Model the fold of this input.
Amino acid sequence: MNSIITGAFGFSGRYLTQSISDEVICVSRSKKNKTNIDNDNNYLVDCDLLNKTAANNLIKQYQPKTIYHLAGSFTQNFEEDYNSNVITTKNILDAVMQFSPKSRILLIGSAAEYGLIKFEDCPIKENAQLRPYNSYGLTKIYQKFLMDYYVNQYSLDIVMARPFNIYGKGASPLLFIGNLYKQISLYKSGDISRISLGNLENKRDYIFIEDVIKHYITIMKYGTSGEIYNVASGKATLTKDLLKTILDEEGLDLSIIDSNSRPIQANDSSVIFADISKLQRLYSDR
Done:
């Protein structure tokens, strides 16, 4: 039995490869992204998933039991995010349909699909109206519709996780948490004397990366094909409180922080958190 993990050397991928006991095919687009993974069951494969022939060959060769499709991008450049989040997904699904139709696939959506969220919408359910306000959220919705189509038309076995705000070391510096850890590293090395952040007074649904990975594996094992599951803590945490926790873990405090409390904008919400009852049922119904 084997599993394919695309984006295996990204933030979530590195944690996931360490959590799966099966033989794992770690797929990376470029050799330069490869890092050592301490697991004898892991095999490293270069594959450009934008190349349809390469995707076909990957699936045909390994005939995976499960595919964790974590590859993707968050650049807010529509063409790049569309290629990384949509075209790679379509190429994988087409390859599975042709060469390995019994494979089970986990796709990774995003809370950005919900877009404009009002306080009265919370806790937000998976069936809430999708109102994206950025190109990343839009491409993730396209990915969701691909799942719908391939499940309904071709009976592929696909489930989707929809994570909220993930925190942990290794996050993209384009995100608040990744930017924070990057600046902490620069501060400790003496390259900067202050850490500059944005608004710390909003409340978001933060969830630790190791919990996220646990839920991904559970959704893969027990989720219903064609369904979406919010992956979140189910509670709103003040961003400043999370900041204090991280700084404390790093032996630092708020005295080194400069925050920019910019005016609330139209696409901002002061409080966002998820309804995770659907995810919780995967654990309680076992």
The chain has two domains: 2-164+207-232+272-284, 176-203+237-259.
